[in-house]
Amino acid sequence: MQVAIDNISELEKKVNIVLSTKEIDEAFDKKIDELSMQAHLEGFRQGKKRPNKNVRKRALQLRYGNSIREEVLQELMEKSFQDTVTDNKFKIIGSPDLDVKQKEKDKDVEYSVSFEIMPEIKLDDINKENFTIEKKSVVVSDSDVKFAIEKVLTDSGKFEEQEDKIEDNFIVEAEISYEVNLGKKKSDSEENTDEDNIKKYSEEMKFDLTDKDLGDYLFDPKKLLVGKKSGDEVSAEFTYPKDYFSNELANKKASVQIKIKKTGKIIPAKLDKEFYAKFGINNEEEQTEEFLNKKIKETLEKEAEKIVKNKLYADLSEELSKKYDFSVPNVIYDGELGRIKQARSSYCNVFKNNDDHVNITDDKAESEAKKASRLTVVISRFAEDNGLTYSEDNKKNLDKKIQAKLHGLVDVNEMMYYSQVSEKGFENYMNSLKDLAYNHIVLDELINKVNLVEKQVSYKDLIEKD
């Protein structure tokens, strides 16, 4: 066997292997010997070595020689490649690409296998001396509890239609129509029609004029709507940003028309039995503001703890992806880039301004994909170094930890949605959560190794910045 390794790039390898006719013939003869003792052929008896062994071998060669040779070649190719990988300590990522160059009978067999390997990185400096992360420490105050109760009362309230002019605390239901001038240029031989140049959209929308995120829109809903009444129509013009996520819409002029259908206010719920029951307070003796404040505080503390942990995961991931700069396998990078672009197009509202986390530009998408890919490699390497990869010894333990983590990651509404869409969609959703749970398990171990500096913040600051 002859082996030659081409280094296509730092992480791309190509193994070229030549299997000689001699070793192929020897393996073929050995296989025929084994089968002659086992195979049932019409006219021959099974058993130990007998005088008719050569006859049986010739019969096997005549009847099944080609298929046996294919099986032998497959085994030799798999073994020779695996031996090469083992000898060179390659850690293959993704599916290798096989190219058989010569496979004719009575000739040397030549083939090559192209693949990517995981980069070699050292994580020795992840320790309390060299790695510091800030951790939020939250104290839930009485004002936080009051704010939360008022919000729950409002969220639990009922919409009451109003005939008065719209005020800045109204809810407005409207029909939205807009047009975008795509500015496409036509050649002399083509007709330039409005259908080619004008793109139209329409949908039903609800504007909460108390929502602080209204400022994200490319037009000002509050400025357009305050002072108007149900039945009125308003319009505005705007231009999409140059770096808008959709190349078709970027830097294009557009107009929006809003037809007001219904206006009103949310009348907050009252502190009655029904409201107390939402928090599991069914005992009438416990249905007091004092007891409710206690329950709300406990709820806020649990929520704060979850937010703090997720923020810690995010900050640690960000630091790890910045600290280690190395080439990443294309198979990981392409997967991360696809995920980011899919999220960008799936969650973007066409009315909104660019958001770093959603309407991400192509350049930033590539940058984020590289960071995410480096994090994937770091987590994989750390897991391997610390016995957190799947094996027969720790599979059950890891599965238990993942199930425990899933309890806090599953969103009931999302789970119901994906379960109704399709069986495959639900399976993909749960698998993505299992991957996230596994990452959190590894990050927990990483957190134990770094220095945490606590910073006290209020609950309100925590949720506003989160």
Structure explained in plain terms:
Helix content is 47%, strand content 21%. It is α+β, with helices and mostly antiparallel strands and 466 residues long. Strands 6, 7, 8, 9 and 10 form a 5-stranded antiparallel sheet that branches. A 4-stranded antiparallel sheet has the order 1-2-4-3, sandwiched between helices. Helix 3 (142-155) packs across helix 7 and helix 8 packs across helix 9 (362-385). The model is unreliable at 47-51 (pLDDT under 50).
Q: Report the structural category.
A: alpha+beta
Low-confidence runs (pLDDT<50, min 5 residues)?
47-51
Report the helical percentage. Answer: 40-55%
Q: Tally the beta strands.
A: 11
The H/E string reads EEHHEEEHEEHEHEEHHHHHHHEH
Map the helices and strands.
Elements (H helix, E strand, L loop, with lengths): L1 E6 L4 E8 L1 H18 L14 H36 L3 E11 L6 E9 L14 E8 L2 H14 L2 E4 L9 E11 L12 H4 E11 L12 H5 L7 E7 L13 E15 L5 H5 L11 H35 L6 H18 L14 H24 L9 H15 L2 H10 L1 H27 L1 E8 H7 L1
Parallel strand pairs: 5-11
Antiparallel strand pairs: 1-2, 2-4, 3-4, 6-10, 7-8, 7-10, 9-10
Helix pairs in contact: 1-2, 3-7, 7-9, 7-12, 8-9, 10-12, 11-12
